[in-house]
Write a structure and sequence with these properties.
The complex is a heterodimer of chains A (about 325) and B (about 475). Chain A is an all-alpha fold and about 325 residues long. Chain A has one domain. Chain A is about 80% helix and about 0% strand. Chain A is built from 14 helices and 2 strands; from the N terminus they run H-H-H-H-H-H-H-H-H-H-H-E-E-H-H-H. Chain A has a two-stranded antiparallel ribbon with strand order 1-2. Chain A is globular, with a radius of gyration of 20 Å. Chain A starts with a helix and ends in a 5-residue tail after the last helix. The relative contact order of chain A is 0.13. With about 475 residues, chain B is mainly alpha-helical. Chain B has one domain. Chain B contains 17 helices and 8 strands. The relative contact order of chain B is 0.12. Classes of the chains: A mainly alpha (about 325), B mainly alpha (about 475). At the A-B interface, helix 2, helix 3, helix 4, helix 5 and helix 6 of A face helix 3, helix 4, helix 16 and helix 17 of B.
Chain lengths: ~325, ~475
Amino acid sequence: MSLEIAVAAALFVGVIAYAVLGGADFGSGFFDLTAGGSRRGAEVRTLIDRSIGPVWEANHVWLIYVLVTWWTAFPSSFAAAMTTLIVPLLLALIGIVLRGASFAFRKYSETLGQARLFGAVFAISSVLAPFFFGTVAGALASGRVPADGHGDLWSSWLNPTSLFGGVIAVGTCAFLAGTFLTAEAARGGQTRLAERLRVRSLAVGAVTGAVVFAALIPLTADAPTLSDGLTGRAAPLIVLSALGGAATLLLLVRRRYGASRATAVIAVASVVSGWGFGQYPWILVDHTTISDAAGAPATLQGLLVAVGVAAVVVVPALLYLFRLTQSKEWTSGAGH
Amino acid sequence: MSVHEVLAQMSDVAPTALASAEPAGLLPARQQMALSLGWHIIIACFGVAFPAIIFVMHLRGIRRGDQVALDLAKRWAKVSAVLFAIGAVSGTVLSFEMGLLWPGLMGTFGDVLGLPFAFEGLAFFLEAIFLGIYLYGWGRIPPKRHVLMVLPMAVTGVFGTYCVIAVNAWMNVPTGFRITDGEITDVEPWKVLFNGHAFMQFGHMWVGAYMVTGFAIAGVYAVGMLRGRRDRHHRLGFLVPFAFATIAALAQPFVGHFLGDGLADRQPSKLAAFELAETTGDGPSPLRLGGVLIDGEVKGALDIPYLGSIIAQSSFTEPVPGLDTVPVEDRPPVNITHLAFQTMVGIGLLLMLAVLLYWFMRWRGRDLLDHRWFLRCCATAGPLAAVALEAGWIATEVGRQPWIVYGVMRTAEAVGDYTARLWWVLGGSVLLYGAMTFGAAIVLRSMARRWRRGDSDLPSPYGPELVGTATGKGTDAGEERR
């Protein structure tokens, strides 16, 4: 494997991690939004608060990792994508800012009225941010970012692939969050809540799966390069994703929540990987390859050192945090 | 015709009408960067300095079994949860803006300046992880281990600051690459990470962060004492951050002075602007207090002979090189740079004298905390330190203009090819940051109010028990305990 492919792989690991971990946090906003009024939704919202509170900032850093690795390793393609996709990126950014701020504000707000306002902002922005990121992915994958940047401000992301990308992003986020929250509720002994979330997760999963496979049809005309990749090189990953999704639905039906979480992660991680493999070797599809876009070799080596250090230092700390959140002491309402 | 269309037409006409004038997107992009960076930098100070202050308070609570200290540490942790959240998202805005606003810089130099950002990302990762562990660890992790969880945040905050500042220092003193036939070659990213100018500039920012945070938190308790709350809680809450701020305020003038050493060689145009030196004199330059440059003439300045040369050049005879040594097209906006620089220095010296006075009087057996005038000064010290920090950033950033990478790339070359519609983004950002500031202020105030009423545990405002008793808006959530 050449240096630039190694760095591109490390970059894409970040994309997958953000899609799965950050995605699950965003997806909980969908359940917050659809939880109902203050009284009916209180249980769901408290669960969401408890489960994403300790981890959302750590999960969010994957986005920073992706951005930094991208601009450092493949500078010109980064500049091209940012100038072309400024509109959806700004909209996603608004979503990120409002989501993070209002989530923190809601937790500490003084009155129910304030909590409702911040909660609504949190929930809506949690749905909007992944949608716009999905349109960005669609734009990159369908060859709408020219190598020199400053592509069309509107048609670059208002096209079939981008719009499907946006809807799929929202769906996969909600699907992940649904399985995670259902498992959390069941683990905390909230059986009734788990039942309610289980039904919704099943519905979200079925709809998202259908959209993913429906999207393959318009993609053949709108994004031929990606489409060839998805049905060719990346086909095993798409099949794996389908199997993972189906297994998740089955496990949810049979109330095997712990296992359903794992298969949901497999389903989402493999569909995102499928995108990556599908558009390989392009970084900006039909315009710039990974090798063409690569920056100075010394910098790529430096980046791999940074990634190595991160694997040694960050990953154990992250696993420790996740292990704590799954422990008995952290599941009960004690402490904070 | 709609406003949009008018603006679009204007922006289409503008480049031809103004011929070789600056790109339409340059000014809005610079203002956008100034707003988002200026906002984030204050919150970032808390991210850098607050963990260490919390650690000292928390450790004291555990070591001495001091419940007051423990309560303070716990409350500060909750305040930091709010500040870190808005710091994380406002920092993300900057990451995007690097590419959105300055594609010329990132597309050309991304692989030169990127490595420090990669390590900063690593530091931010650890900070976010341990923030989660520490915040949610109260009562869930054994106390002696729990207190240690705040330490990684203190360390990574410092390391992350170094990395970001290394990039800014590189923009001031570019290194680690060569330009051959217009192409960037011989990129040495480690040279950028460890560039010679980074360490001093980092020191200045790091100490500044402790001043802003220490004075701001101490100021909160000074206000409490002014309102007659003179318990041990307020005294301790004042003294620990004030001690941090003291050390920082005493060190800062020296750190800043050493940072400025050699500026005449590195960035003569910036030094000339700092000192408002319009021409190079024959003998020693005066220190020019205040004043503005209008049509090439200095007006309203108070000149102190010799002092300019002594401070800037460490010499009794050598003049400060003036703007006349800099080509007109390479000169920064002089007045903003000069006034911002002197605002920073003035406030810095004032704060140093204030802390000296406090500890001197204490040594002589008098506690100035019994005096209302001193408490009032302490209440304003936090905002003043923040103003000094902003002024310092304005001085160094505006003073580097018209360059984004000094001597190598002009800011006008770095900006994206946008129309004047970019002003709309700035307008939206003003609203967004305004709302975020307002939201944070409301939430922090209501936290303080609730704590004063004696509710140490914050309720879940949308929790079932509260909703059961709610009668609509304005419900006093503070009365509910989980």
